[in-house]
Every structure is written in structure tokens, then in C-alpha cells.
Amino acid sequence: MADNLVSETAAPYVDQTGPPLLSVDNVTLKFGGLTALNQVSFEVRKGEILALIGPNGAGKTTCFNVMTGLYRPTAGTVVFDGTKLPGRKPHHITKLGIARTFQSIRLFPEMTAMENVLVGADVHHKTSVVGALFGLPRHRREEREGRAEALRLLDFVGMKHLAGEVARNLSYGYQRRLEIARALATKPKLLCLDEPAAGFNPAEKEELRELIRRIRDLGHTILLIEHDMRLVMGIAERIVVLEFGQKIADAPPAEVRENPKVIAAYLGEPDEDDVDADLMPDRDDQGGSDDGDS
């Protein structure tokens, strides 16, 4: 990467030859007379970090909700690892290998950090209710393995020392990390992060950027919604841009920042100075900006 600022267009992790891991194909979603998504199509390749960006109300989170089974598209389809997703329940989609975080923190506030991560790991447990009730060997083994994995994930996100802390007592930054650890506990092939840097200061954003890279290094594919353009430009290999529920760009970061439609969507009118300020990381500010809108 040039000066560690703009992500390379093709990382060695990305599978450029096989079928896409995720394919969003001409997805339209209508709520009565409102069209929230209008024939949106894009692909996510295995090993890729792809950012989904756009102004507020562009349809980014709605797109996540279609992918994860919260909404069923009016038209079009979503295919994940060869399986069509529309009509499947969210927990079935999680078992297939898609995990997500949300804009607003959704932890179990009275549970410990360890217990929150164990909730994520539970999705793949095979023990029956009877087995759990009577403490059969399989249940004890799964419980033992689950705790070991939860502790490993907490260590991975820098929270091993907080394993026994109740979630509501954690700082905002640690709560965000805990959400990521819980999502990773579901063993996802695709991790969807919805504005993970919201409310972060520059130092926290830099730590998040490194965490996302380490997650990808483990073999996970990442789809990221984020308003902080410095963070996006510094980590994504490709960017999909939505405006008013329609895709207006799909390209590497360097091309997106020069795209007139993208500039107009964010700034109203193309202006070279404003583009450099809003869509490109400063060379003396690699930690990101803490004033992105949410």
C-alpha cells in the first residue's frame, strides 16, 4: 500500500478465480410506495474486504438486513456460498456462515463478556435440551470447548483480562470489540460490520483498522459499512457506493474517490479540494477522523 493509506486494489488473500462468496443480484426492496433498494447488484469475493458506503438513507443497512434474513427482497436474490438466502430465517443464515454487528450495540448487558461470546458459539452446538439438562458427555465437551474458544476470541480482540466483567460495565470501545468477538464465535465465512467505528476517536479507529486486517488474516471475508472515509480508503480493496437505494459505483478506492457521481452524492457538486478532504486520508492523519456522520 502506498504509505499505508490507500488499500491495494487486489490483495493476495482475495480469490479472483472462483465463484463469489456472496452475490447480491438485482435486489429490490419496497415498503409500500417507498423503494428502499432498487435493483442493487454486487459481489463479495472470498478473502476480500469490501466497503459498502453512501450518504445517510442510501440503503446500506437495509442491504445488510436483506442479506441476513431480516427483510425478504421484493425482487432479486442473494446467493451465499452457492445457497439462495431469501426466505431463510436469520439463525439459519448465521449457521451458513454470515455474522453481523449492528449500528447500535446489542449485547446482553447483565451477562459477562465471556457469556456474551458463548452465546455466539452456541449456534453450532449439537447438544439436545435433554443432554444439557443431564450434563451428558457431549454437552460437557461442547461447554468446555466453547469456553476455551471464547477466551481465545476475547484475547484476540484484546479483552481476555475482561472475560468476567459484566457487559454493561465495559467502556463503549470494549463493548464494540465484544460484539465483534461474539460475531466471530459463530465461525463466519463472511463478517458484516455495520459502522464499527461510530463514536471512536482517531486512536481507536487505528486499532479497529488493525483488528479488521487481523480478522481477514484468519481467513474471514469482511463486508463493512462505515461513514469514516479515511478508514474506508485505508482498508477496503473495493468499495460499493449506494445513493437513494441504487448502486452508483463499484470500484477500487482510488477510482471511487475520483468518481463524479460519488463526489456529487457526498458533496453536492464536484470540487477537487473538498474531495481530497472528505474522500482521501490525510498523510499526517493515518488514525482517521472522529467527525464522520452516522
UniProtKB/TrEMBL annotation:
**Known Pfam families for this protein?**
ABC_tran (PF00005), BCA_ABC_TP_C (PF12399)
Q: Which GO terms describe its biological process?
A: D-alanine transmembrane transport; L-alanine transport; L-isoleucine import across plasma membrane; L-valine import across plasma membrane
Its name, as the record gives it, is ABC transporter related protein
Asked whether the UniProt record includes Cell inner membrane among its keywords, one would answer no
Every ABC transporter domain range: 22-269
Domain of life per record: Bacteria
Composition bias (Acidic residues) maps to: 269-279
The GO terms this record gives for MF are: ATP binding; ATP hydrolysis activity; L-isoleucine transmembrane transporter activity; L-phenylalanine transmembrane transporter activity; L-valine transmembrane transporter activity
Q: Give positions of region: Disordered.
A: 269-294
Could you name the Gene Ontology cellular component terms for this entry? Answer: plasma membrane
Q: Does the keyword Flavoprotein apply?
A: no
